[in-house]
Amino acid sequence: MRRRGARALTGALALSLTAACGAGAGASSDTVTYWLWDANQLPAYQACARAFERENPELHVKITQLGWEDYWTKLTASFIAGTQPDVFTDHVQKFGQFADLKVLQPIDGLDPAAYQPGLADNWTGQDGRRYGAPKDWDTVALFYNTRYTKAAGLTAAQLNDLSWNPRDGGTFEKAIARLTVDEKGRRGDEPGFDRHHVKVYGLASGGAGDADGQTQWSTFAASAGWTYTDEKRWGTEYQYDSETFQSVVRWYFGLAEKGYLAPFSTYSVSNPANVQVSSGKAAAAFDGAWMISTYAAAKNLDAATAVPPAGPTGKRATMMNGLADSVTRKARNLPGALKWVKYLSSDACQKAVGEYGIVFPATPEGTRAAVAAYRKKGIDVSAFTRPVTDTKDFTTFSFPITNYAADVYALMRPAMQDIYANGKPVSGLDETNRQINLILSQ
């Protein structure tokens, strides 16, 4: 869940910010408080902090790591209470509301060209100021159990050359059908296949995807030429009422009706897509680069990855999500916070983080260090890096960046679950989209 869509800000935050005062808990004039949520990255950033303190002996970095759910709850509460950290790891889906609530400090002097293309631009507010220093990035690929693909007669070359369309699913649907096996050993593409009694699903369930479908339907929608909103950033109209989008959703969730995609009831916090694959209940799953080490460490699983299938546009598509470090407007140690956040986004720190082989840092040098670290571990990450370097065959896109992201999430989450779990018609998204755009128009 490290990079999945960030949850909604509570209404209490908007109502209480004006009354908040004070600064980060435990902060002092020589301390910079820093929050992050990923425990796997903690050792890397502790190393960066030590290097930063050697260069700046007058400053001390105090790092707090919290689990994903606790992180956003406590961060929201800290803004209300006036105990917010000086610097925190930010998610682009939170950015719109944080910027609107004016809890972020502009970060000037960063060179967008120093980072992978587009990462810095995503943190530019509607006022033209930058509110996040690029931290790292991820893309999405197809993880698969090589034991199952070999048994199905599918080679790595074939899995990396799949294509799809919303009419018959193309070679991608054929491959997923082939990987699906019922309780009597019949494959999804064989006569007599029983979709009601499936032993191994071709594709794991990652849930309904809410408003972004990062590791579910977004790769298909984007490769069909669809975009979330009318503008790349800060759009004023969502496009869930598009026939293109609805044809993608109808086909994608239709895979569950055919028995190839695990049903909605399969997915839970304790049974995410990677667990379904590692337990042998599913043959493959779309998942993000942040899960590379998790799949590699899974027992009794020899996992490999393939690029997303090419779509009707002729290109393969993947969300490229980039995190950033943001400075809070009421940081107690604002000069120290700005100095720390710029160090975090520098090649010195990003290369050090990359050498841990946990994430892809935002700078090209940091990315190269990560690729080399993964290679030393025997892990091929080309399915994740190719979309960034090969603009001829791939297209990348970001989470939608708009105002009222929490409201969009609140409306789309039940709407998408209804389609997946209850078979509701996709045409119902017309009304959901109308409600969303009405909110954005206010």
Description:
By secondary structure, the chain is α/β, with parallel strands linked by helices. The chain has two domains: 11-137 and 322-378, Periplasmic binding protein-like II (D-Maltodextrin-Binding Protein, domain 2, 3-Layer(aba) Sandwich), CATH 3.40.190; 140-319 and 404-440, D-Maltodextrin-Binding Protein, domain 2 (3-Layer(aba) Sandwich), CATH 3.40.190. The protein has 17 helices and 14 strands. The chain has helices spanning 11-16, 42-55, 68-81, 92-100, 146-151, 156-159, 170-179, 218-223, 243-257, 273-278, 292-297, 334-344, 347-354, 364-376, 382-389, 405-422, 429-440; strands at residues 31-36, 60-65, 87-90, 104-105, 133-138, 140-145, 181-182, 198-203, 282-288, 303-306, 316-319, 321-328, 360-361, 394-397. The protein is globular and about 75 Å long.
From the alpha-carbon coordinates, what is the Rg to the nearest angstrom? 22 Å
Strand portion: 15-25%
* Tally of separate domains: 2
CATH class of the largest domain: Alpha Beta
CATH architecture name of the largest domain: 3-Layer(aba) Sandwich
Layout of helices and strands, plus pairs?
Elements: H1 11-16, E1 31-36, H2 42-55, E2 60-65, H3 68-81, E3 87-90, H4 92-100, E4 104-105, E5 133-138, E6 140-145, H5 146-151, H6 156-159, H7 170-179, E7 181-182, E8 198-203, H8 218-223, H9 243-257, H10 273-278, E9 282-288, H11 292-297, E10 303-306, E11 316-319, E12 321-328, H12 334-344, H13 347-354, E13 360-361, H14 364-376, H15 382-389, E14 394-397, H16 405-422, H17 429-440
